[in-house]
């Protein structure tokens, strides 16, 4: 069957069904017409034979009657006897009866033959239908396979189109964000270096201002470095190239390392950072990557905590995992946004230019690369708690002491 390339699968199927229905109708009509014609032909022949036979019989009887009359007229001595007439009538009656019995037998045979013909025609019709149904099934199978092949191709094309589109959008977004967000630290670095040059060229060596400007430059470099690293990480994570190299790490030591790193920022905001973690709990993790996760979570907590509040860092043992949490007393995150913030480039407020909205996405990817899970619970106005799990080192996991805190 010829198919129009622009037709959809249901349309093609409908068209095939229609044409096969037509074919079936035509076959039925043809068979019924042919068998009727054959029956009518047979009936006509019988009718003709009977009319001829009746005519012959009547002619014969008329001739017999005429011959009898002539014979009587010629031989006046022979008088017709009433017995002879009766016998003649009787003979004709027998002959008529015999003929009608013969015709009844004929009719019955013909009726049987007709029934047999109808049965034969029905059998032929049934075979034709089975054949048509087989064709229909085969045609459908072929069309369905073709439609499935086409829709798989289409789906594949759509996916690669979406990927290309996303890649282009992401690239445009990267370029937009980079060019916009790198401007601020670059401007700060530029101003600080100009000031330093100006002072130094005048022979003025003001240590305080020099150190202040160096601090601004360092901050700018750290900020830009973080942005670029985040973007490179996202690129790796999007292309499944994030490699983690797990080793057995003592968790409380890792948390203390974080606390020490953030100490200057914590004190500059008059915050405090506490750790609650049993000693001797080992986890199988990529040290630097988990430090990165903790830095993201603590960095956010620092960003959103009001002055004078406490950030709580804690860890506890759960079956085969360690559960680590970072709790703050910040503004909280609305329920409907709590999943969204783990996606790429998601920020709750558009004026939040302290990051790219990638920290949590990166953290989730790193935690998942360790077969862990990350989640947030938060109450608006009360604060947020970010929790993630890490696998315990089986050979080093020892029963933790009740609770160590510092
Ligand atoms: P960024 O690098 O821009 O901070 P993140 O992925 O780390 O991006 O965070 C995404 C967004 O989630 C932030 O912009 C902020 O709106 C919200 N968020 C993250 N952590 C907290 C927190 N502790 N309290 C309130 N909001 C938070």
Describe the protein in words:
By secondary structure, this protein is of the alpha+beta class. Helices cover 65% and strands 11% of the residues. The chain contains seven helices and seven strands, in the order ααααβαββαββαββ. The protein has helices at 9-74, 82-181, 183-201, 207-238, 251-268, 287-304, 359-369, and strands at residues 247-250, 272-276, 282-285, 310-318, 321-327, 374-379, 383-391. The strands form two sheets. A five-stranded mixed β-sheet has the order 2-4-5-7-6. A hairpin with a 2-residue loop joins β4 and β5 (321-327). α6 (287-304) runs antiparallel to α7. The two termini are 81 Å apart. The model is unreliable at 1-5 and 401-406 (pLDDT under 50). It binds adenosine-5'-diphosphate. Adenosine-5'-diphosphate binds at residues 296, 300-301, 304, 328, 330-331, 333, 341, 346-348, 352, 355-361, 384.
List the keywords:
two-stranded antiparallel ribbon; disordered N terminus; single chain; alpha+beta; 5-stranded mixed sheet; 406 residues; binds adenosine-5'-diphosphate; 7 strands
Summarize the structure.
With 406 residues, the chain is of the alpha+beta class.
Helix-strand pattern: HHHHEHEEHEEHEE
Q: Which strands sit side by side, in order, in the main sheet? A: 2-4-5-7-6
Question: Termini separation (Å)?
Answer: 81 Å
Number of helices: 7
Report helical residue fraction: 55-70%
Q: What global shape is seen?
A: rod-shaped
Secondary-structure-derived class: alpha+beta
Strand content: 5-15%
Mean pLDDT: 84
Number of strands: 7
What is bound: which ligands? adenosine-5'-diphosphate
Biggest sheet descriptor: 5 strands, mixed
Q: Spans of 5+ residues with little confidence (pLDDT < 50)?
A: 1-5, 401-406
Radius of gyration, taken over Cα atoms and rounded to an integer in Å: 52 Å
Multimerization state: single chain
């Amino acid at each position: 069957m010829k198919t129009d390339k622009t037709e959809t699968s249901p349309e093609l199927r409908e068209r095939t069904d229609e044409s096969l229905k037509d074919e079936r109708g035509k076959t039925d009509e043809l068979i019924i017409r042919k068998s009727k014609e054959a029956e009518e032909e047979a009936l006509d022949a019988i009718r003709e034979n009977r009319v001829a036979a009746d005519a012959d019989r009547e002619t014969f009887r008329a001739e017999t009657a005429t011959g009898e009359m002539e014979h009587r007229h010629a031989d006046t001595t022979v008088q017709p006897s009433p017995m002879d007439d009766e016998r003649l009538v009787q003979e004709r009656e027998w002959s008529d009866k015999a003929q009608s019995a013969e015709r009844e037998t004929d009719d019955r045979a013909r009726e049987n033959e007709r029934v047999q013909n109808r049965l034969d025609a029905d059998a032929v019709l049934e075979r034709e239908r089975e054949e048509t149904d087989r064709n229909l099934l085969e045609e459908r199978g072929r069309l369905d396979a073709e439609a499935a092949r086409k829709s798989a191709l289409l789906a594949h094309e759509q996916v690669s189109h979406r990927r290309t589109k996303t890649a282009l959008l992401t690239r445009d977004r990267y370029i937009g964000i980079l060019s916009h967000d790198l401007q601020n630290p670059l401007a700060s670095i530029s101003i600080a270096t100009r000031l330093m040059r100006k002072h130094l060229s005048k022979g003025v060596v003001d240590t305080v201002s020099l150190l202040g400007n160096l601090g601004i430059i360092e901050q700018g470099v750290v900020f830009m470095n973080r942005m670029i690293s985040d973007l490179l990480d996202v690129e790796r994570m999007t292309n499944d190239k994030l490699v983690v190299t797990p080793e057995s790490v003592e968790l409380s030591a890792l948390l203390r390392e974080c606390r020490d790193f953030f100490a200057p920022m914590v004190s500059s905001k008059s915050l405090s950072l506490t750790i609650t973690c049993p000693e001797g709990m080992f986890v199988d993790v990529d040290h630097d990557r988990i430090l990165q996760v903790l830095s993201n979570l603590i960095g956010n907590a620092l960003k959103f905590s009001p002055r004078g509040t406490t950030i709580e860092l804690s860890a506890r043992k759960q079956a085969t995992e360690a559960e680590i949490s970072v709790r703050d007393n910040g503004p909280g995150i609305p329920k409907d946004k709590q999943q969204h913030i783990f996606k790429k480039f998601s920020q709750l407020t558009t004026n939040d230019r302290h990051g790219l909205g990638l920290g949590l996405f990166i953290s989730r990817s790193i935690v998942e690369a360790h077969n862990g899970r990350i989640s947030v619970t938060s109450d608006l106005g009360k604060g947020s708690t970010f929790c993630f799990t890490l696998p315990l080192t089986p050979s080093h996991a020892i029963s933790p002491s009740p609770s160590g805190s510092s």
